[in-house]
Amino acid sequence: MLLLECPCCGQRGEETEFHCGGEAHITREGPGADDAAFENYMFERVNPKGVHLERWRHVHGCGKWFHAARDSATLEVFGTYAAATHRPPEELLETIRAKRPGFKWRELA
Questions:
Q1: Judging by beta carbons within 10 Å of its beta carbon (0-12, 13-18, 19+), is residue 107 exposed, middle or buried?
Q2: S-S: 78 plus which of 12, 63, 68, 69, CB 3.0-4.6 Å?
């Protein structure tokens, strides 16, 4: 079972209280995007076995979006942070790298 803490309201709960919105820190292209950019947005995703950065929404709580870093193999949650940030907090990245040496994530390598 996945236990998450919403960084917006501080409530902690099971994953059924939240909704996963896919990969975090990607550019979400809209109707004005060219074909190549929209194709990249739709189909070019990472699906690692290991640490994954995701968007989550607290649907049965404050309703706000946030990001979470978790291990897709063990379900260990390393932390959550506000969705308005463009990259994970450095303390969170240090925690992940300490537990998972060699961790790389797209441009955050």
A1: exposed
A2: 69
The answer for residues whose C-beta is within 8 angstroms of residue 103's C-beta and 6 or more apart is 50, 51, 93, 96, 97
The whole-model pTM stands at 0.86
Strand, helix or coil for residue 95: helix
Fold of 3-108: Folate-binding fold (3.30.2270)
Strand 19-23 vs strand 12-14: parallel, antiparallel, or unpaired? unpaired
Distance in angstroms (rounded) separating the CA atoms of residues 52 and 103: 10
**pLDDT at position 29:** 83
Is the four-CA dihedral 31, 66, 58, 13 of positive or negative sign? positive
Q: What is the pLDDT of residues 10-26, one digit of tens each?
A: 999 999 999 999 889 88
Beta bridge partners of 53: 69
